[in-house]
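Handover notes (outgoing to incoming on-call)

Open items:
1. ATP-grasp domain-containing protein: sequence verified, structure written out, both below. Nothing else pending on this one.
2. Nothing else urgent.
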Amino acid sequence: MASSFAINSITPNSNYLRHLRNYSFPAFVLRKTINFPVKSSNLSCKRRSCRVGIVRASSSTEVVDDRESADVERAHNGKVLRVGLICGGPSAERGISLNSARSVLDHIQGDDLDVSCYYIDSKLKAYAISTAQVYSNTPADFDFKLESLAQGFNSLSDFTEHLASSVDIVFPVIHGRFGEDGGVQELLERSNIPFVGTGSTQCQKAFDKYDASLELDRQGFVTVPNFLIQGSEMDESGLSKWFDQNLLDTKLGKVVVKPTRAGSSIGVSVAYGVTDSLQKANTIISEGIDDKVLVEIFLEGGSEFTAIVLDVGSGFDCQPVVLLPTEVELQSHGTVDVREKDAIFNYRRKYLPTRQVAYHTPPRFSVDVISKIREGASLLFQRLGLRDFARIDGWFLLPSMEASSFAGNKFGRTDSGTVIFTDINLISGMEQTSFLFQQASKVGFSHSNILRIIIQHACLRFPALLSHSIISSPSRRRSKSASVTESFIKQHKKVYVIFGGDTSERQVSLMSGTNVWLNLRASDDLEVTPCLLAPATSYSDVSDFAKREVDKKSKTVWTLPYSLLLRHTTEEVLDACVEAIEPNRAALTSHLRNQVMDDLTRGLRKLSWFNGFDISDELPKKFSLEQWVKLAKESLATVFIAVHGGIGEDGTLQSLLEAEGVPYTGPGVMASKTCMDKVATSLALKHLTDFGVLTINKDVRKKDDLLKMSISDLWRDLKSKLNCDTLCVKPARDGCSTGVARLCCEGDLAFYINALQDCLPRIPPNSLSKEHGMIEMPNPPPELVIFEPFVETDEIVVASKSRNEIAHNLLWKGDSRWVEVTVGVVGKRGSMRSLTPSVTVKESGGILSLEEKFQGGTGINLTPPPPSIMSNPALERCKKHIELIANTLQLEGFSRIDAFVHADTGEVLIIEVNTVPGMTPSTVLIHQALAEQPPMYPQQFFRTLLDLASERSM
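ATP-grasp domain-containing protein structure tokens:
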């Protein structure tokens, strides 16, 4: 029988860990130590260290402190700094933590800095993991195989002992519990291990929303009135009095209910009245999210903001500088479901790029309000004893919105309204387009530069690390103000990465394009320009869409500066482009940017290792699509296509580029046209049945015809023609992730057709008879939809996600013997090679949601398929069938094939082929490239795809 030990046996004097003594750890026999060294040659092309002087914050961006190259050489030749990156944790945000760790790893690795990766699982067990595991989509991808593929530690004491001898400094990127509440910090402090960020005592005080609000009140800040509910004590009488005191109706008064210690977005909901508030508080407690819950006044009509604070002081001398804050605007487009009318900035809106939220950096507030936000966040950072960096959230209320509850002469009041600080995030999210990088790029810092500055600043507190001097901006990429000669630029190969477009997958396209751009720009011999294929301004009159279809050549493309790309939606990027060239807005942004850069320069210029700002304040440029193609030709550029669906995947863009002789990534015109049409794809593969490649019967219907038919007659007709009881419906010529639903009855069919007719932007979870997640709908609605039999596969359960968890394991009955896989193919036309397939695990409803396909931290992909599901011979036969499909369709460069595979025979039942597959940071293509021997890391993988494009046969 497995033994366990209580957590207080590890550190008996630890206040924090005593608080978690209800956690126990399975016994684990410590295997022989496995080292996972991270070699920079594996992760990236070696970066040439290139100096950028400190830039004065002025429109001329004059170089005022150009250090000698000898100083850079001294730093470059110094000791390598060993960084331990810790991610995961017990909170529901551990998937986002993995995303942050992946992003940090991408941007800090270099010759002067070596990274080791560690993971804390949901039971607080520590593992040393390989860098390949950090590129997983979600912790569930590898939780079940940690015991065999990672170095586990018997206890947290053993873990810290390992860290003390293996790394110089720890960079914790655990969001929520154990990461931001002082847990991991206390663990490190007790072993005298240097780490990035705020100390344990200060973390504990700032992380708890109730304690933080009390502290803010003591410090003289305006706070939001709240009521605390603890444990099982549901104080209905006390809550009713609180409602009365704050002039809220006890039956319908609108409030926000949220856990006090679960991060900034987990478990947050809107409630009405005392009874509803208590019910939602009880849900938070019963689900184990937290045993302390806050009920707060709903700030109706307020504007939410968030601000990154960077400490630029020397040693223990705190000198916080607040970057340009971001305004968070919640939006609704089209018909709004009743469940969305009380929108809050929740987990989904924060991490999935849809049009439900927009960001404005700087905020659309008056200058005095922005100044008050920066001043207040700086004061909070100092008074709460925070270190290195943090993110502070809050609200701005206009005078007309203020309630009597906010009376009093406290910090936050301006002539324009009131600033209220609500949440303090000790470890801000660090995904590629996170607030940290958005705001940093606005004031001259690349991803790599801001992260290295944070790490180097943390080193100042530890005497033993003062001899280390990492290069703050190691990439050769620099602002135009630096002395980059014309000949230096000309010798580099130009690459245009294009993304965006009009399809329902344009937001995923933005994620793909951003990821490709960031990875390719690390190559010293490339000049990489991000390009937005601008979305249409409106689809309000979708019934007349066909008449409004414009000539493809007249579409608009914007070439983008660094800071304008880091957005969550294509519409946001487009708005940012328009704002950037609007004189008044541009002048205000420039003025605020210069203020922040002046503040930063005053602190950072005292630090010998700071090598200056490396992002210049450039303007976007607008071209017609035809002009842009000619520009690519004149520049001798290779185009990396990341436009999903529409003209990026149907052969149109490929045809325009071919006409001008411009090389591009992915398949050619005819292959793109065939694969974009799911019916044409099936017909092209129909003759391969005897070779183990099967196709699914399809029934194509016009949307207008669906609206005219009786639902009962249509349901009977479809079931009869397709010979099945359960249907799958999807757009005929759209991407792979939107508008796909499982229909089990007439009611489901009626609901789906109504969603098309009403142009719903999304179908809310569990609106159909079978449990499902959010279904993002195409916009505009498709003219043609496909009905096909729903293929039943046996459910795969990751045991670590189940309530009755016994061990990390996979549960699969395997009755039908069919599993769903997605497979990347790479190579030249006629000789395409299959990468290792990934088994896709659906969370609910039998259809992969948009999140599960593309959003890091969600969805599960098993790469390679576990032997318990598919034998090696079957896997090899599957790969041969995939290669046959790819070469029959004349694919080239790279594509992704989705299919069902028989676990015993390796037979393939084709679903669809994506000629411009998702290339987001968590895409399965990355997992599959890493499964190659030797592994291909993201920068190498995308460079390989680019080189294939340059060599393509026209």
